[in-house]
User: What shape does this take?
Amino acid sequence: MDTQKIASDYKLTKWAQIIQARRASGMKIKEYCITSGIGETAYYYWQRKLRETALLKIAATPLKNIDADGNITPNGWVLHKPPVNRTAIEAALTIEIGDATIKVNAETDSELLTKVCRVLMNLC
Assistant: This one.
């Protein structure tokens, strides 16, 4: 049993809960840290660690859904291919999570959107 790994996982879980609570509160980070007695530097440190851990997990996850054209679809997602005879489509998609807003339209790079979706899946 690796006690350092267990301790690290515990801290990551604890800080994930703190960060989620801050987001749910609607407070700014500085305000939340002051009212909760948390050091702002510690907050940003653990936020970075959580993001790094999520990205490492994504990088280590094998992608099983690759079609004949080489398009990657994360597990549990469906690849939607636009019609070949596309005319000017003005449709857009807006995704809002906490303080972040992501706007997607026909000109959005599909590889970038795939990477963003993979990160979002791991944050939920």
About this structure: Residues 3-60 form one domain. The chain has a mean pLDDT of 79. The helical segments are 3-25, 29-36, 40-60, 110-123. The CA atoms of residues 83 and 89 lie 11 Å apart.
